[in-house]
Amino acid sequence: MKLFVSGALLATLLASGGYFSDAVSARDGSEAPLTQDALAGTKAFEFTLMRIGFEDVCKVRRADTSGEAQLTLDSACAQLVPALAGARVWQERADGTVAFLSASGETLVEFFPGDGVTYESLRPSSPLLSLYRED
After folding, report:
1. Contact by Cβ (8 Å): 67, 90
2. With a threshold of 0.85, does the pTM exceed it?
């Protein structure tokens, strides 16, 4: 019985490792710039942010400039999640998570690669947020 449980645990760990490595490679290699900013040395990506249980959505734009990813949110984001009003920086971390930071560096929200969505919120745990990349 112990051998069966150990085998099942090992299979689960191997399967999840493959999932996360695919998510990272897809994020790094398949994003296409949505604007002419790429021609000027800036890559811009747009996302739709949804708060689960609400019909309203907001647009999030990440612009990669000078080694830092600037974050721009439309005014609807602050209505959906008031804490996002101060979000200025998009930070991608080595573990695959993404954080929205304030200008002072405070983490306002963290996301992890989602299943069926680009990212799902990790912290805060409530409200649950989903982030979809615009193609």
Report:
1. no
2. no
